[in-house]
Design goal:
432 residues; 19 helices; globular
């Protein structure tokens, strides 16, 4: 029997991947851009470290809410229904943030943006997973992961270009409307997931989409069909997977989000320049993140998920430890250490999207994505709020050591708990 797992990639399937990755692009874009925008907003609104931290953390709180609620609704009512609405909402609230008159209004707008960015995670990644054959899942999720870094890199470049413009922060925050418009055009003809439709007993609709997208000779692999339950992701073997994936993502993204949200301040603390020069330093590190994603897409298939994850976390920790114990190192050492950490983030960065989609069945796939990412965002909320305060109180060396300890914890946990899903169908990978 030929199933979706066995087909070859087509231009339409690649289109689904590219435009589904748009939510990840927007996340990286809106997160990195606020770090640059804060260089103008802070003196304009006369912000304290606490207010600056609250603005940075507000989008994380929104993502926490959006991923959990959006994931559950995606499994309940379908992948596509919110696929358009969330992009419209992100564009609207990005526009509203331009007119923020004080820090509180900006926090409200950023929170709302976070809710809909967070909702897009389970929607888009479930669609990508369920439309992609097993040999291409790593590449497709690599595109999703790389889109985050691409969005952050584009934001850094845009921020640098607008950093010297009067009221440039308004142009920065409002510029998110442009990728939203592109995504709306690209997403309008992407259908509902046939695997989700089949799981919900809507076989005729599923069959029609499979015939249209894959051909009449392709069948849908059958899964056990039960009612979607939020509690199921915490039961039995799925509970263990949820805890592991949530902790892994938390340890992976907390240092990364801190670096992006407060990149210019961190670069300045390392003596890599002030103002526009510090933004250039952040741009360089962002490129390392993006470049590291490319080989990781293929290494995850050739080496396997588990070996690459453990190896990558080890190298990431080495880079952060050097930054922590030797913050006054020569500029070249600082750049190499950041580069080591950022380049090897590629594999774990892809797995934060791939693991929760592979390890859970269709009925709770999006829910599991939402819960795992939502759990990790608790850490990013705390760290994003605490980073500027901790940095001011204890210095850049101690800040980097905390980041290193998180990555080392993920390394140790992965030695015992990281699963291997290489070459498995979705049904095989999600069975417990």
């Amino acid at each position: 029997m030929k199933t979706i797992d066995d087909v070859k990639m087509t231009p339409f399937l690649r289109k689904i991947t590219v435009f589904s990755a748009g939510g990840s692009f927007l996340d990286g874009y809106v997160l990195a851009l606020i770090g640059v925008a804060l260089t103008q907003i802070t003196p304009l609104f006369n912000l304290t470290s606490e207010w600056s931290a609250a603005i940075g953390a507000s989008v994380m709180v929104g993502i926490l809410v959006g991923t959990i609620v959006g994931g559950y609704l995606t499994d309940m009512i379908g992948r596509r229904k919110m696929f358009i609405i969330d992009v419209v909402a992100i564009g609207v609230f990005s526009l509203l943030s331009v007119f923020a008159a004080d820090a509180f209004q900006l926090i409200v707008a950023r929170f709302a943006i976070g809710v809909f960015v967070g909702a897009d995670y389970p929607i888009a990644t479930s669609l990508v997973t369920e439309f992609t054959p097993k040999q291409q899942r790593c590449v497709s999720m690599g595109v999703v992961s790389g889109a985050w870094y691409l969005g952050a890199t584009v934001a850094s470049v845009a921020g640098y270009a607008l950093s010297g413009v009067e009221n440039g922060w308004q142009w920065m925050l409002g510029s998110a409307i442009i990728p939203c418009a592109i995504l709306l055009i690209g997403r309008h003809d992407i259908p509902e997931s046939p695997i989700w439709l089949e799981n919900k007993g809507r076989s005729a609709e599923a069959r029609a989409i499979v015939d249209l997208v894959f051909g009449r000779d392709v069948e849908i692999e059958r899964e056990e069909s039960n009612k979607t339950s939020l509690l199921e992701v915490f039961r039995g073997g799925y509970g263990k997977r949820t805890i592991y994936v949530g902790i892994l993502i938390l340890c992976q993204v907390v240092p990364m989000y801190a670096i992006y949200t407060f990149g210019p301040q961190i670069m300045n603390a390392f003596g890599l320049g002030e103002g526009a020069e510090s933004i250039l330093g952040e741009n360089a590190i962002s490129l390392f993140f993006l470049i590291g994603t490319i080989p990781a897409m293929f290494w995850l298939n050739s080496m396997g998920r588990r070996p690459l994850l453990v190896l990558s976390l080890g190298f990431m920790a080495i880079g952060l430890v050097i930054l922590g114990v030797w913050p006054s190192a020569p500029v070249l050492v600082i750049i190499i250490s950041f580069g080591l950490y950022a380049f090897f983030s590629g594999g774990p960065g892809i797995l934060q999207w791939l693991y929760p989609n592979e390890l859970f069945p269709t009925r709770i796939r999006a829910t599991a994505v939402g819960v795992a990412i939502g759990f990790s965002r608790i850490g990013t909320i705390v760290s994003t709020y605490a980073t500027p305060i901790f940095l001011e109180a204890y210095g850049i060396g101690a800040t980097m050591m905390v980041a290193a300890l998180l990555v080392l914890f993920a390394f140790a946990l992965s030695l015992f708990m990281a699963p291997e899903t290489k070459g498995k169908s979705l049904t095989e990978a999600s069975s417990v």
